[in-house]
What we know:
- The structure is a single chain.
- The protein is an alpha/beta fold.
- The protein contains five helices and eight strands; from the N terminus they run H-E-H-E-H-E-E-E-H-E-H-E-E.
- It has a single domain (28-196), classed as Rossmann fold (3-Layer(aba) Sandwich).
- Strand 4 (105-107) and strand 5 form a beta hairpin.
Amino acid sequence: xxxVATGSEHLTRAMRSLEAIFLIGVEGVTEIWLVxxxxxxxxxxxxxxxxLSSLGREQARRLGARVRRVEHVAVYSSxxxxxxxxxxxxxxxxxxxxxxxxxxxxxxxxxILDFKETNESAVSRMRAAVEDMVAAHPxxxxxxxxxxxxxxxxxxxxxxxxxxxxxxxxxxTSISTVRMLGDRRMVGPLGDVAHLx
Length: 197
């Protein structure tokens, strides 16, 4: 029996060490929840800066119920209407940060996306925004409501991937987690939509 207990203690220590490598349960870690805004395309009335659709408002309501159950110190948002409406479903106190906007793009008549902003530019501004959140809220959880391509740019940077290597499309109100401590940056859960199930 002693051998089993000793083996399980070694396994437990090994798992705690592995979790620490990924900044899980480590004191002083700042956790950023990158949240994509709710749906704004169903029933769209304003293609330039659309509000949330009825579906998007329900998604944001469900996200808000989830967020209120966890400790967090701040909610940041892109200034675009769909992000602001999502953020206000989470908190009345929202910090607007223009760096959280979607990557600039044009959409052709046949629906093809043509990104006008380079990935490097999006990575740079998202990195700066996240680093400023970490500096303002060390060791805390912060929620940043932003947009799909901006989230992908940020995650690609944290994961040290080349542009186009991360094949993920964050769903509406999904949560993708980034943990930071000093110069260490790790990705946690990606595209979490448990609140929508």
